[in-house]
Winged helix-turn-helix transcriptional regulator (Curtobacterium citreum), 318 residues
Amino acid sequence: MIRYRLEPSDVSAVRFGISPLSELGLGLRAFRAPERYPLQRPWTDRIAGVLPLLDREVLSGLVDERRWVADFVNPRPDSPLTSFDDELRALGRIRPERLRSDLERVHGTVPAVFAGRHDRVVERLQQALATTWELCFAPYWPRMRRVLQADVAHRGRVAAHEGIGAVLAGLSESVRFDGRHVDVRLNSPIARDRPVQGEGLTLVPSVFVVRASTPIDDDLPPTVMYPARGQGAMWSTASHPDAGAVRDLLGRTRAALLDALGEPASSTDLAMRFGVSTSAVNQHLRVMERGGLLNRTRYGRAVLYYRSTVGDALVRRE
């Protein structure tokens, strides 16, 4: 069991994050044991044809038969808006000793594929992950991200109405919270008692965990990865609207903005991208938000817009 000890100031600093790289890392479990992830069977069936194109030697070196995954492919996300490209670039700066220690915690030794010059090992690792993302995750990431964002939004509402304690207690059957301690029961002999001490506790929803899990390395920032709610409907089929009809319905500019907002963006970013004024973009965004096609969130001083589930249904490409 892992215990995170929280002071009152730590409880108020609990936050959520979404990590594309972590989803890829945890998704390697489904590569190894697809029968353990029946809700993701439609995904594993769809990607079966591209698996021979992947660097299976590298990917197999990141996860073992217990489905333990190397911590460096489960980074703690900085926000709900972290991008895969940013996380992959950060991974390129990994220190040799961190790479070795994370792999040794999983396998007891460093797999042969990760032996050799550090820069070449990291380059091959990045390429293997980039290819896996492009072929297996990117085409389906909008669906996965919708589930993760909806989970975070739901738990945010729970926190607002019932407090963060209700959120922590409701993450998973394997998580307990008594007001001071977050206890995570694992299917492993690992046991530790760790104070958070101002580092912050990050809660990371995932579609590839059956029960809550934590980093293997005790020195890593306190993080709990937990099963996202709503996975059962993630692969439900829906009709694909005609793109021309969407333009006729919304108008060319709003249809283009809606299409662009598969990833969060600010009105300033969108104005620069489309060569129009920020005020004009804001007007369109507000109308689409009121119409339920967009959601918005604040990140620092910026307001970011992104498609809602309804908006996704209008432009769905998967």
User: Anything to note?
Assistant: The CA atoms of residues 104 and 138 lie 29 Å apart.
